[in-house]
Each structure stands twice: as structure tokens, then as C-alpha cells.
Amino acid sequence: MSHLRQQIREEIATTLTGLTTTGDNVFMSRVYPMEQGKLPGIIIYTVDERTMPSTTGAHRTIEATLNVAVECYAMGNAIDNLLDGVCLEIQQALSANRQINSLAKNSQLDSTVINFAQDSEQPAGYATMSWSVNYRYKENNPEIAL
């Protein structure tokens, strides 16, 4: 198995694959830039995580809040509307799966930041949606959600 962070990222990617506007252009890496041929597209990655034990003893229960970035990239006319449309689809899909297939207790959209490319031949931009994902696990077993 893999760490719950990875499982959560993968489940979010599965949830977002096949959306009307972005289709299969869903990636889980921020190392490589989004290629123009993959637009509109989505990149999913984890930003940070805060943890706190909620029980005492040998194997404490850990309450974790994971910050997941979902970036959507687009290029074309009416870029504002296109990015808003992709954000709408993402928000609807993830809100319908707030427990991320039982990996999380809850998830929510915290913020959206929209940026536009200044040096592009065509109107281009991206929106970064920050999602908080709350989940629990035993300190000695971060592969299994509680």
C-alpha cells in the first residue's frame, strides 16, 4: 500500500478524470510544465500537511489536514469563462465526493487564485484551487484511514 496522502491524490485524480472540459488531461505532478497540447488540463499535488494526535498511548490516532492543490490550465478566447467553467466542474465533482471514497472525514474548497499569462501568444491562464482534506490514521499505520 501507499501513504494516505498518495491515495488521496490518486482518488482525487480519478474523480476528476473524464470531466467535460478537461477529459483525461489530469496529471499528478508539478515537476513538468503543462504542455499546450494537454490544455485544458488539471494538475494535482499536495502542498503541506498539519497533524495532531487526538489520542494518547502507544499507537496514537493522528488527525491530519492535507492541503491539496488542484490547478486547472487553459488557453483560448474568453479565458476567464473557460477557467471558471473548469473550476465549476472540479468543484461539483469534488463536492460530490467530500469523503474521497472513505479516505477522508471531510474535504472542502478553501480558496481559488486565478492567474493569467502575460507573455502568451493566445489568452492563457490557470486557476489554483486549494482544498483541505481532513483524515485520520493510526500513528504507526499511515496507509489505512480511520
Q: How is this structure best described in words?
A:
With 146 residues, the protein is an alpha+beta fold. The protein is 21% helix and 38% strand. A five-stranded mixed sheet has the order 1-2-3-5-4. The protein has one domain: Alpha-Beta Plaits. It has two helices and five strands; from the N terminus they run H-E-E-E-H-E-E. The chain is elongated. The longest helix has 17 residues, at 79-95.
Give the SSE string.
HEEEHEE
- Order of strands across the biggest sheet? 1-2-3-5-4
Largest beta-sheet characterization: 5 strands, mixed
Q: What percent of residues adopt helix (DSSP H or I)?
A: 10-25%
Radius of gyration: 17 Å
Principal-axes shape call: elongated
Strand content: 35-45%
CATH architecture: 2-Layer Sandwich
Separation, N- and C-terminal Cα atoms = 15 Å
CATH topology value: Alpha-Beta Plaits
Question: How are the elements arranged and paired?
Answer:
Elements: H1 4-16, E1 26-27, E2 41-53, E3 61-75, H2 79-95, E4 106-116, E5 124-138
Parallel strand pairs: 1-2
Antiparallel strand pairs: 2-3, 3-5, 4-5
What is shown here, in short?
The protein is of the alpha+beta class and 146 residues long. The chain has helices at residues 4-16, 79-95; strands spanning 26-27, 41-53, 61-75, 106-116, 124-138. It has a single domain (4-138), classed as Alpha-Beta Plaits, CATH 3.30.70.1700.
